[in-house]
Amino acid sequence: MALRKLIFRVYALNSKPNSVKVLNTHMSAFSVLSPNTDLRVKHDRHNLCFSINLDGHQDSAVLRYKFTSKKEVDLLSTYVPESFRGKGVAALLSKAAMDFLVEENLKAHISCCYIKKYVEETTLLGYKDLIIKLQPK
């Protein structure tokens, strides 16, 4: 388990914004797509969302947020089409949102239960420091 977290931390530090590759199935509980899958997270600042266009699927996976003040956001929700659920897509969206907080020096409230779980379970990435009122399980 500690090795998984270390590998995930190294991966997170080396990943480029807006160009996230999915991790190998054996590396993270949050990523179970093929390591050859190339999913890109797009950040739409105008519409306040992160999205992933899923090949061969009409819908996109989406994480929505809103600003609650100049330096605070509320991470509202994640949506992943049913056929892609449980495969790490929401984790990619969550990571992109958390990286956005880091890059913009923002703090966040979390309304989405999936994102709460993601932050609680990826402790080595230090995301908990960015969260306002994160309630333990």
Automatic annotation (TrEMBL):
Domain N-acetyltransferase: 42-132
Species of the source: Oncorhynchus mykiss (Rainbow trout)
Name recorded for this polypeptide: Protein NATD1
Family, as annotated: Belongs to the NATD1 family.
Database matches in InterPro entries: Acyl_CoA_acyltransferase, Gcn5-rel_NAT, GNAT_YJDJ
Database matches in SUPFAM superfamilies: Acyl-CoA N-acyltransferases (Nat)
Gene3D superfamilies noted in UniProt: 3.40.630.30
PANTHER family: PROTEIN NATD1
Pfam families: Acetyltransf_CG
